[in-house]
């Protein structure tokens, strides 16, 4: 809502935490529309050349090679690990991934499927403790046609939900409000994760 409290014009000319300047688009050339834009250049990895990243560029293969804070990993198992979604639907949106680069659930070994299930259950318990969520969306998008952002590496979504998590932002402002920074969310979930 142009000009309203919290609109882009309130922050125009000020650097955000990444040093990127926020600019009010209402003063630029073009035909205005109802959408506010959140500029996310870090998503270019997903849209460059319109293809999925190769196995050597797969974010789910690279993540375990980095430290937990850098990769947003909250827990590591023997066959799979848990990390925060870099583009969450809600705060605490987790992904459970096998270490092995496989694309479909029926390609996972019995050990991998057992650990994915166990890590999912633990993640649900931890999220309930840390964020007092009321429910969850769990799911796997199998293949690009089914909506998988990274179709070549199996991953299960765990999205915490609250009775009060619906607000006007997604509908009116086409914006999702996330109350905590990813690093803070990662730290709280990792701290509450039970030690094996």
Automatic annotation (TrEMBL):
Residues 59-168 form the HIT domain. InterPro entries: AP-4-A_phosphorylase, FHIT, HIT-like, HIT-like_sf. CDD domains: FHIT. Substrate binds at residues 85, 157. A motif (Histidine triad motif) lies at residues 153-157. The active site is at 155 (tele-amp-histidine intermediate). PROSITE patterns: HIT_2 (PS51084). Signal peptide: none annotated. Keywords: Hydrolase, Nucleotide-binding. This is HIT family hydrolase. The keyword Nucleotide-binding applies. GO terms for molecular function: hydrolase activity; nucleotide binding.
